[in-house]
Amino acid sequence: MATNTETAETIRSLTGEYKYGFVTDIAAEQAPRGLNEDIVRFISAKKSEPAWLLEWRLKAFRAWRAMEAEEPTWANLRYPAIDYQNAYYYSAPKSDADRPKSLDEIDPELLATYEKLGIPLREQEALAGIAVDAVFDSISVATTYKEKLAEVGVIFCPMSEAVTKYPELVRKYLGSVVPYSDNFFATLNSAVFSDGSFVYIPEGVRCPMELSTYFRINAAQTGQFERTLIVAEKGSYVSYLEGCTAPMRDENQLHAAVVELVAMDDAEIKYSTVQNWYPGDENGKGGIFNFVTKRGACRGRNSKISWTQVETGSAITWKYPSCILQGDNSVGEFYSVATTTNLQQADTGTKMIHIGKNTRSTIISKGISAGRSQGTYRGLVKVLGGAENARNYTQCDSLLLGDKCGAHTIPYIESRNRTARVEHEATTSKISEDQLFYCSQRGLSQEDAISLIVNGFCKEVFKELPMEFAVEATKLMNVTLEGAVG
Amino acid sequence: MPSLLEIKDLHATVGGQEILRGLTLTVEAGEVHAVMGPNGSGKSTLAHVLAGRPGYAVTKGEVRLQGKDLLEMSTEARACEGVFLGLQYPVEIPGVSNMYFLKAALNAIRSHRGETELDAIEFLKIAREKAKLLEMNENLLQRAVNVGFSGGEKKRNEIFQMALLNPTLAVLDETDSGLDIDALRIVSDGINALRSETRAILLITHYQRLLEYIVPDRVHVLSEGRIVKTGGKELALELEKSGYADFEKKDAAAMTASA
Amino acid sequence: MNETMPLGREYMERYPEWREALPGNELPWLAERRADAFRRFAERGFPTRKVEAWKYTNLNPLTKKLFAPGAALAATPGALPADALDEKSVHRLLFINGRAAPGATLALPDGVRLMPLSEALETVPDLLAPLLAADAGPEEAGLLEMNTALMTEGAVLLLEPGVQLEKPVHFFFLTTEDAGEAAMHLRNLLVAGKGSEATVFEHYLGTGQTGHWTNVVTEIVLADDAHLHHYKLQNESKAAYHIAATTAKIGERAVYDNFAMSLGAALARNDIQARLDGRGIDCRLNGLHLARGHQHMDTTTVLDHQKPECRSSETYKSVVDDQAETVFQGKVLVRPDSQKTSAHQLNRSLLLSDEASANAKPELRIYADDVQCSHGATISELDEQALFYFRSRGIAADVARRLLTEAFLAEMVEEVKDPTVHAVLHQATTDWLGQTWPKGRRP
What we know:
The complex is a heterotrimer.
Chain A: H1 4-15, H2 37-46, H3 51-67, H4 108-116, H5 121-127, H6 136-152, E1 155-158, H7 159-165, H8 167-173, H9 184-192, E2 197-201, E3 211-212, E4 227-232, E5 237-243, E6 254-263, E7 268-275, E8 289-298, E9 304-311, E10 316-319, E11 322-325, E12 331-340, E13 345-354, E14 360-370, E15 374-383, E16 391-401, E17 406-415, E18 421-429, H10 433-441, H11 446-462, H12 467-481
Parallel strand pairs in A: 2-4, 3-5, 4-6, 5-7, 6-8, 7-9, 8-10, 8-11, 9-12, 10-13, 11-13, 12-14, 13-15, 14-16, 15-17, 16-18
Antiparallel strand pairs in A: 1-2
Chain B: E1 5-14, E2 17-27, E3 32-36, H1 43-51, E4 56-65, E5 68-69, H2 75-81, E6 83-86, E7 93-97, H3 98-112, H4 120-133, E8 144-145, H5 151-165, E9 169-173, H6 181-193, E10 200-205, H7 210-213, E11 218-223, E12 226-231, H8 234-242, H9 245-258
Parallel strand pairs in B: 3-10, 3-11, 6-9, 9-10
Antiparallel strand pairs in B: 1-2, 1-4, 4-5, 7-8, 11-12
Helix pairs in contact in B: 5-6
Chain C: E1 4-5, H1 9-20, H2 28-44, E2 46-47, H3 60-63, E3 91-96, E4 99-101, E5 112-116, H4 117-123, H5 125-128, H6 144-150, E6 155-159, E7 169-175, E8 183-192, E9 197-206, E10 213-222, E11 227-235, E12 241-250, E13 255-262, E14 267-276, E15 282-291, E16 296-305, E17 311-320, E18 325-334, E19 342-351, E20 357-366, E21 372-380, H7 384-392, H8 397-414, H9 419-436
Parallel strand pairs in C: 3-7, 6-8, 7-9, 8-10, 9-11, 10-12, 11-13, 12-14, 13-15, 14-16, 15-17, 16-18, 17-19, 18-20, 19-21
Antiparallel strand pairs in C: 1-2, 3-4, 5-6
């Protein structure tokens, strides 16, 4: 980490004078509360970003200021108004001195959850933020990993590193799928994004391993305004895993991430997410607000982008991973399991925009609501005039566990091409009595029967996850729904 | 030693309507009994009451399984005690493989009996043995429970489950309905292979045809919620010839006579 | 773009003058309701596409000029069109260009009142007071407030408990060339007493090419155990604007069977809101859009399951040709504790031409768990395989298309049980198909 004087000078050289006069606090771990242009400059300077990126951030910030009154309210979500000035937008990475030294210092209840989820010990340590030098295994693992990728020319590094090491690449694609002024939360992210992943797969390369955020040994607290960019050149393939089943806490309640995917001719990107951010207590207090913009551009012919997500956390979830099917014969897929319990609210779904010829999209959404929660699927399938022979198949199923929750399905289906075929089906019900009886007649307890049936309900989505994620996802469902059924 | 199954004066209602009106029946271990009757006589109700299905209310009477009070127990407890119901319309459970489902069930029952649970490999071994015994295709195990199964396949799956779970009392509710001759033979062979000294099988059926394949020790005629006649296997042939009408008439006459 | 377009100044200026000529002015409660409704609508104006319920339908044409109520329209019957229903087979109320036309109607049995709104306001105002609400939740339907403010005429049918009306009632709204660009604010009222049963045929027919605006609200109240078969045929002039709202409040075990066919108007919107306010209700909403040219047809329904044990089913089909556009928005709302609800909805759109378009938004808002709810929506063209099959058996392409389209429509019209109404609707679809595939048209 830079010294006090060095950073202060950097700031001054980049930005001139500071309006708010906290230059002397540059060494501070955090920027002061609030969001203004100086904070944006501060963030950029702390990361030693090139001028073009600062400019981009500033453009976004100004756009966000203009939008401030237009925070989207159309989603089926109720939450207290967010005071954007009452948050911290930058926190420096913790020094090792501040980290726990071993799992003994971690909340035993949290450890118990890790056990139930079957998370291996080493990973538990990483999740709990144990000081890196106490987990020396992780470093060596990361090193071998990096070597393998370097051999085939795959770039996988933190966004902050990519910005300085591969500026032309980042500059070319950043904001090309989600423009900085796209929507309220994406615009906010563009101004203050903290870090994220940058992945670049060169032409013809099939990425030799699944890329996971675990391996990005990045001690910074990056969850808040994560920015990820994945570019798959012609004929390449990559499978990327984001998140984990472990319940994740964050002092910062507001999360607004942006993920952009670009797939060229014959390329395929598989993006899997398991999200279990702190959902708040049983009264809904204190949970994470997760506003995410994820979009994939199938730019090339025969390109394919698949989104698979298992969402069990967050107090509020607002996310619509989407695919722009520009290239002829391109394919977009969305597989989702979203569970809400207690007082969680989720408004999630996808947008499939069919532009090129012979494009295909598949949407399988499984919603499970329990407690007093509300789960909403919101989707758009849009077939433009030139999208000859487009095909869409959508299946949305919702399961209600209990009579105090709600499950809602709000699809928008728009077709302007007669050769396209768009099919949408949705069902909502509770677990069938017949199924419950069948299971109990075969000796299963009610809890086990429900667990079995719910996992069966989610099977179509789970089988799209990379193997280890799928096993974890099943365990996560069991843990999440524990006691959710009265 | 108590009989394997003892039903005394059982009265039960469904949806507010009384269907079983004083049914009495005893089955000893090793026996196969057939319960026959016209539609509406209460055959399915009997099967579901024995299995403990919610929605069926017992208003009077007693049922004992090896001396234990069956009606006191929950559905899964009865299963763990050894009651198996082969359903007439087996339900589908999408996304759950037969293998997974049956391993969970078998382990629940084993655990109740104080036996160790089986892991996937041990279970697969047993499952394969039973599949072979019943001449069934192994890949049945990987398919989701009853999803996309033909009528015959569903019934065979019921019998396969019975073979795996090794029940003390098997109640088979119209197992022959919807089956063609070939499927009927295969299902019957399976059931016959499961006859044993320690097990009782209650075959609930409308048609006599099944009983040519699975020869019963006793045949009971169920009419309007009560057993009105009991006999040997010849009784089934009698019914075939004369239909149920006679029994209903006789029963009605008997009822007015005793009124 | 704002959420609404404020009511033009001209409307505000002319309203006091128009209000003078409205029926029922001597009734203080009505005058008050009209005033409130106008004030509210004036504040909000016409909804724009930013209002969720109007997402796919642009009301701009209605705001571009002033549509004045047609005060001086003649109500002389003249000769009725050839396809008008035989007045001996229906109980008819005839309106020409928005004015009640005198005319014989079949003798009514006891316990049935059938008369124009203007007459009802004079003779039985107390029966109307509980109706004519300026608001009819759960959401604002159509342009209801403006209608309340300016309603001039309409059909009123009041059935006493137990009445069984055998012959259908024909609400016949005819517009001729004289309609010009007038606005017709019509209010129909349909009240069915406990256990009563009737068939009502709501019929809009335009013989001219006028660009008038029909703004109609049909309020329905079904008491417990009532049965209503409500059919509608909208066949207005192809240049007209037809904005309709039907609000139905349905009591225990009642049956509401609604079928609406849309053929005419440049812009047609049919808002149907059914409130299932009792147990054991059976509510069926069905409809058909046959759109061509530059027509825009929008059916937006809200099925509100407020109590347990009700059944609802919806099937809406559209056939779209040329540059026309169809919209279906169907919201099914199952409130908390409305257990044992069964709600199923189906929407199918068939696109016949390269520039035809369809939009569907089937929506489920479910707050009770012991329910069976589903919806399905499909948009496509005629099935290639089916077409090929016909052609491989020697049937010409255009004949094959017509046959397949006919099959697509057939099941909708077959649902109409009343033979008189069925005949009219069936003829209407046959005519439309014949115009779409005249001999020698493109394959």
